[in-house]
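Subject: for your reference before the review

Hello V.,

The reviewers asked for a structural picture of the protein, and I figured it would be easier to keep everything in one thread rather than splitting it across files. Below is the amino acid sequence we used in the manuscript, unchanged from the supplementary table.
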Amino acid sequence: MITDILKYIQRTFLFVLLLIPLASFAQSGMHSNVVFNGGVVPKDKMVEVKVRGRAMSKYGLTFYHSVRFRANQNTTKRILQLVTQDAQNAASTEHRDKGSEHSFILSMPNHGGTHRYLCFLYGGKKNVDITLVYMEGRVASIDELRKLIK
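And here is what came back from the structure prediction:
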């Protein structure tokens, strides 16, 4: 009986160890990943949201990761450069401006059968409110994604 419990704990531990790299793999290979990891703005200055699983399935997504923070002009420029570098590898892009509000939606190359998106929203003049969102799932286009997030 104790050996069965130990085997169960071992299997569970191995399963968790296998999931950790998958969660960090989601944005890997993207220049903007450094923002999600706290390399541009310290993590304690960001509001971070990660959602995986059933809560996202009704939106056709399997993973949602966002960071939100206020930034100065230099930080905003750095993040815009990173997103622009990601856009060079994107399958499609959408850019919209409305006054001082700007948005970029990038459809990144699929990973297996999973569609991946990066959204960058920012606005303001001196101190800029920034939201960076990574999403993945079965949503097949930016148009379809936009319908979900309205």
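For the response letter, the relevant points are probably these. The beta strands are 47-52, 61-71, 92-98, 101-111, 114-123, 128-137. The longest helix spans residues 2-25.

Happy to draft the paragraph if you're swamped.

O.
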